[in-house]
Amino acid sequence: MASPKSKRRSRKRRTPGAVSRPRPVAAPRRELRAERQVLAERDGRRQNSMLGTYGERPANMFGGVPVSEIAIFFGGLGALVGLASGAAPALVVGIIVCALGVVEFTAREHFSGYRSHATLLAAIPAVGIGVALIALVGGSLARGTLLLVVVPVFGVLFWLLRNRFRSARQARVVRPPVP
User: What span, in angstroms and rounded, lies between the C-alpha atoms of 98 and 87?
Assistant: First the structure.
């Protein structure tokens, strides 16, 4: 049995009066190589996934002015004012302006192959057709009839948009954007 005063020593023995040497300066080439390796692994993961993003976000068609983001902000603000005051025109205009900003932003990302928004882009016309049918027919429209029209429209649009995104993503991966 070991004595209570015995301490476990490391294999590397130090002499009591030894001075520790300073650590060497970090090698910049080694750091750059490690950073490049991390970036290459991250890009490799992005290229293999069809769900994530690839490359840089596409530039908007208005130059440096973030028009769609401004439209989303003011449309949301208009919708809130319309809800708070009970003004139906402000609510409708706010929702329409916000929706236009969202459609521009998501369509730009989707059709450039940056990120898929097939579900959202397919749902907007399907919901529009549903609202138009309810407005035209009114309360006599059954849910089953409404779904019989809206679901196939959504399905066909989703399939077409998803195929379009896959071809745009393939073009983006084969011919990556110039940095």
Answer: 17
What distances in angstroms separate CA 29 from CA 34, 36, 39, 65, one per listed residue?
9, 10, 15, 39
pTM score > 0.70 for this model?
Answer: no
Six-digit token string for 112: 């450039």
DSSP string, 62-92: TTT--HHHHHHHHHHHHHHHHHHHT-HHHHH
Tokens for 173, please give them: 């991966």
Query: In this predicted model, what pLDDT tens digit does every residue of 43-62 receive, in sequence order?
Result: 655 545 556 677 778 888 88
Three-class secondary structure of residue 163 per DSSP: helix
Cα 7 to Cα 114: distance, rounded to the nearest angstrom? 61
